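Recall the central idea of this unit: under ordinary conditions, the amino acid sequence of a chain determines the structure it adopts. In this exercise we apply that idea directly, starting from the sequence alone.
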Amino acid sequence: MPKCLTEDAANRVANNFRSTITDYSNATAARVLSENFHDYSDSVNELINNGCPNGPQPLGTATFSSLAAFQAGQGSQPPIPFEILKIWYNCDTVTMRWRSVAPGFVQPEEQVTGIIVLETSCSSGEEPFLIDTVYSEFNSGAWLYDLGIFKPVNCTA
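Accordingly, the structure predicted from this sequence is:
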């Protein structure tokens, strides 16, 4: 069993996480996320605080502090399409830059781009590397605009 990520393994980890957002199922989440899973995103916390009945979610705290919390939260969301723009990796971490052009309801939509860092651990199961911790940040202002929550401000004098 490899102890460090390879390029193929890093791509698999990135695409596994992408599938938990674009085509969510509890089975996929349980297969690719570790039992000790945590997800940190002030961007998501800000979305929760500005339009979801589950707020407030304090900034700087875990968005999801367990696999079960992620399954409950992400499982209640519609699929969010996004493309992976670039992947970087080291022995146990995958970083990816991503873009979504369809997160909301307004036209024209604002493009949302972000960065996700995925800390992994070795596994003897179906997936050789499981995702332990996610750190994700993106343009939550554009996302809130796309959801119709923020309106553009005219700053001309």
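Residues 1 and 124 are 8 Å apart (CA to CA).
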